[in-house]
Amino acid sequence: RRDTLLYLDGVTKSFDGFKAIDNLSLVLQRGEMRAIIGPNGAGKTTMMDIITGKTRPDAGEVYFAGETDLTRHDEAAIASMGIGRKFQKPTVFESHTVEDNLRLALAGSRSVFGALFHRRTSDERRRRDDILTATRLTHRRNARAADLSHGQKQWLEIAMLLAQDPQLLLIDEPVAGMTDAETEETARLLGEIAETRSVVVVEHDMHFVRALGVKVTCLHEGAVLAEGPLDAVSADPRVVEVYLGR
Ligand code: ADP
């Protein structure tokens, strides 16, 4: 369907006979932000690994932006199709400034040296400024990444992801370790990003998931246990049981 950006169809992945992902199906619309929750071991990371091509499923298909079955492509090809992933652990260059980190990300495949000394066009400059604004980092553009707050470092990671101009952003626990104020700001920031892109957020922090205000999918044993608004999902007896039963 036209409105569908990502469609996981009956995806299964076993590790040594253990089904980490068990006939999982999931549909994400264009322009949708989805929160993925679920207890440890539910399969959230493996699902992200399958979408990005880091892990190949044993069965099932992953359709992206129409007919493309991602399971036939490798990680680099999938990234170039417009899927960007942010891991929980920051990977910024600590000794570089915010702006230089972003410059490197915008340069993409150019060498580090080439990226820093490349003459920038006004178009590139505008993109950089837009991304700094979107990620609340304009006033910190000349700060070294090492001197950013934990939250600002996470936002810089999101900025570097936006530099790749992905259609779909996969974000793993963005607010872990953030202050309450940073957490709220992150919910707003992602909401703005989702006005023009699709976003999948894996998150344990239920206050944050509530602030996102989007459809929630609860995974358990590699399959969808419940899906819908957070209030409905968190009141679902099966969801209550898997969270309490741990
Ligand atoms: P989550 O991210 O929801 O905590 P994971 O996707 O990391 O869950 O893991 C799902 C299950 O698959 C877990 O039981 C985990 O131990 C297992 N698993 C994940 N990756 C591997 C691997 N590379 N080898 C063996 N088992 C794995």
TrEMBL record:
All copies of domain ABC transporter, residue ranges: 6-246
Alphabetized UniProt keyword annotations: ATP-binding, Nucleotide-binding, Transport
Entry GO CC: plasma membrane
GO molecular function: ATP binding; ATP hydrolysis activity
InterPro entries registered for this protein in UniProt: AAA+_ATPase (IPR003593), ABC_AA/LPS_Transport (IPR051120), ABC_transporter-like_ATP-bd (IPR003439), ABC_transptr_urea_ATP-bd_UrtD (IPR017781), BCA_ABC_TP_C (IPR032823), P-loop_NTPase (IPR027417)
Pfam families, per database record: ABC_tran, BCA_ABC_TP_C
Keyword set includes Phosphoprotein: no
NCBIfam families hit by this protein: urea_trans_UrtD (TIGR03411)
Listed name of the protein: Urea ABC transporter ATP-binding protein UrtD
Species name: Plantimonas leprariae
